[in-house]
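Hi R.,

Here's the chain you asked about this morning:
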Amino acid sequence: MRFYRVMSLIGCIAALTTSAQAIGGPSGADVLKSLDDFRADLVTKAIDKAKSNGSEVDAEDIQKQVKAKAEDAVKSIDVSKVAVADGLDWAQVFEIADRPREAATLLTAFIGSKPEAPKLFEAQEMLVSASWRIKDDKSVVATLQAMKPFDGGSSVKLAELVVTYVPHESGVLGLDPAAAMIDGALAGVPAADLTERQKDRLAELQSAGVEAKIALYRDAGKTDKALAAIDGALKSAGPGLKDRLTMERNRLTLVGMAAPDLKVEKSCGEFKSLADFKGKVVVLDFFAHWCDPCKSEFADLRKLLDDFKSKGLEVVGVTHYYGFFGDPDKPLTDEQEYAKMADFIKDEKIDWPIVIGPEDDFSTFGVAAIPQIVLIGRDGIVKSLEVGYSAGEFAQFRQKVEDLLAGKSR
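And the predicted structure, written out as tokens:
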């Protein structure tokens, strides 16, 4: 009986490839239900198989099979002939078939028919996604601007969409309007009408929205506006967000300021204080022993120091304890982790001092991602921050070091 049902479903979906809009042809809702049933049956069979032989459910394979059925279903569909009332369902089928352009066409027509609020909102949400996939930025923005939530849940969903997409659309909107749109979407959520789960999600979105606004201004070089956004958010930020905002503020204000000293808990090699390097150009390399890009950078740092130590260059590695070394599932005490640093330094051919300090050192220097290099001039002023590693980017950084050593202003 079960085999017959599965074969019937497959036959039903295959039949959808015939003249799509012929009289008596399947509706979008029929096709969508058939696809949902087909997916459900595949999932059930996969779970049964996993229970019987210990295999894993291959969700990707299931998705591929459903997509293939959807592709068959839309082969003969002329979207210009789809009834407007049927457009939302057919748009979902086209989305499953990975045909966002046709989905966007159907959704636009459906929205134009002015359906009731829940269906309108659903269609607009889908249109934002489809427009994004086909790189129609103007449609993404226009759709978001047109959306009107109709209850607490849809208000949270709109805020989520705005926080997700608007930071990428400042080229269409402009920086200040983009930031204002994020603020407006979050402020428009009626917190009193939300479930506890929705309230938790709103709190997450409020944090994400603040950080998105800061990134907008920071990446555009508008440091003053980024700092204003940080300072405003710090007044009401919870502990986790407050720590991240403080770190970002430090990062934005560090360049051009006197380098703060490091808090040293232990060191490998001779290091007491940055003050000992007065009159020298200093490279602080913030790293972790488990970080592959950090380790990739060591060879370039080694050559940099070999070439320019005689001209007044110093390199200092900065890290902190992570509670393991090699295998995250095997916890270590600080002393045990420190003991393993000697072999790490030998294996990686590190010939500069390594400072192990509290995580505060990372926060003080605005380190949100590693590796991060902080370049300090002979005058003790921070000249630049470099996040991440690539050979090309390091070559540019090397030129900055050469310029500083040569006394060229930066």
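Residues 1-23 have pLDDT under 50 and may be disordered.

Let me know if you need anything else.
M.
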